[in-house]
Amino acid sequence: MINNKSNTILKTHQLSIGYKTKKVETTIASHINFQLQKGELIGLVGANGIGKSTLLRTLIKVQPPLSGTVEINNEDIESTSTLELAKQLSIVLTEPLLSKNLSVFELIALGRHPYTNWVGNLSENDLSVINNALQLVNISELKDKKCYELSDGQLQKVMIARALAQDTTIIVLDEPTTHLDMYHKAYILKLLQKLTKETGKTILFSSHEIDLAIQLCDTMIVMQKDKVVCDQPCRLIETGVFETLFPKDLISFDDKTGSFRVSK
Amino acid sequence: MKTNYTYSFIILIVILLFCFVLNISLGSVSIPFSEVIGCLFGTTDNNTWQIIITDFRLPKAITAILVGSGLGISGLLMQTLFRNPLAGPFVLGISSGASLGVAIVILGSGLFGGLFASILISKWSIVIAASLGSFLVLLAVLAVSSKVRDTMAILIIGLMFGSITAAIVSVLSYFSTAEQLQQYVFWGFGSLSNLSWEELLIFIGIYGLGIVLSIFSIKGLNAFLLGDNYAKSLGLNLLQSRFIIIFATSLIAGTITAFAGPIAFIGLAIPHLTRQIFRTSNHKVLLPAVFLFGAIIMLICDSIAQVPHSDYTLPINAITALIGAPVVIWLLVKQRKMMF
């Protein structure tokens, strides 16, 4: 792990995640310790139901941790105000858009919410940030379209542009490649990689595209039944983490090509 | 962004003014149009006409504008907050609370006996009972909503409160005389007339406060369009915004029900009508547009309800649905796609 502390943007300490009702506490994963660096693309992978979404929801403060802390810029997110956090962290979720009746521009403009005045008027600066986001994601021509006119791939790009417009140091995406075809899966992840390079933002996404993530990510977080590992993809291959990711009866990991194969 | 809509807004304002003057010039007593204008500016010599206009028709037209715009706006707030196209200003049990208050005063007055009862059933007591009823039911819903995190659960809770109050009203009706029942039914028809200037001022005051709160909620309402999690990630204080939106709705819909009775349909239909025509969900455009549409439709409905040049006044509640429902059906069929 790179141990340049000044570059650490997000850090978890003995984080334990899960659900708590009055009587029962269901722990999904515990002793999660990792540090994410500025300007990195980080992929979060793991089998279905292992708790990827729960981890992301805890990192973005949608649900509280059972114990331990999540720190952004050395500040515990539990003690950060919602508005402060909105300037540090933006999100792209899997939940469908509730109102598709907004134009692409209006939707992206909502990303400026933490910075606008009480009625939400856009300043010159807001407009230039929005246009910049449109250009970065390469969707300027969609600007005046309504969201219901877009394909799934286009909509995903718009949601990424909205997160960019929020002008945060970290962007968290929950399975940004679901519902997309093979080309668009690669396109979106490649786009995320480009964005980290061009904007210096830290981008964390969860995905089932392990092969693509291995090729594109700077760091990967691998969730397993008993532990959560965080390291560079090549080192994770060396230590054989991916081989133990799934039961071996159906698929196995080929560490030469860095991809999974169906057992014959 | 707003410049695209300026043209539409100017047209709507002109239509509103036209409907306003038309509404005032129609009534059981026919007054020449030039005299109507004269009365409005105080330059007429005919005292009777002057009184008819300033003390009856003008307050009624203003009430129509307040009721139409207010119900439309509270409907819009509820539909966005609950992300449910079926939501209206009364989903939180506001109207059932008011009905309960009025039912207790009218139907329950027999229980208090003779003289006391006759004092009780004055105009003001009905207004106060309706306000108190809707306010109490709303307080209950608000208390619950601060504990429940799920917006949909609040919607269901509001409906449940509505059922409870409706049940109490049924029990009260069962033990009432035909005369009392008739009086209660008449309140249920809704009425825009008979408001004095004094009452109108109180009406405007509370209504105005609700409108100001809704204007301050525009930014939050737009964030709510993305869903709770996104809204929160944009720095919105969910509990606080939700409280303000519900509070604004209750102020507006509560006073309207208190002064004009439970006027159905407008609150549900106007936001849909506006969305279909303006084709946007941006509340910076929708809020003023809903205000204008609501006021216009209510003025038209009222003009029809009073049946020009006759002594009949039809129940406003029936007219709003008779006129409004076909319009909404027609719009939905024509555009084949619901805007939400």
Task: Please give a structural write-up.
The complex is a heterodimer of chains A (264) and B (340). Chain A is built from eight helices and twelve strands. Chain A has 264 residues and is an alpha/beta fold. Chain A has a single domain, classed as 3-Layer(aba) Sandwich (Rossmann fold), CATH 3.40.50. In chain A, strands 6-7-8-3-9-10 form a six-stranded mixed sheet, sandwiched between helices. In chain A, α4 packs across α5. Chain A is globular and about 55 Å long. Chain B has 340 residues and is mostly helical. Chain B has a single domain, classed as ABC transporter involved in vitamin B12 uptake, BtuC (Orthogonal Bundle), CATH 1.10.3470.10. In chain B, α3 packs parallel to α10, α3 crosses α14 and α14 packs parallel to α16. The longest helix of chain B has 35 residues. The two termini of chain B are 19 Å apart. The relative contact order of chain B is 0.16. The chains are: A alpha/beta (264), B mainly alpha (340). Chains A and B meet through α2 and β6 of A and α11 and α12 of B.
Please sum up the structure shown.
By secondary structure, chain A is of the alpha/beta class.
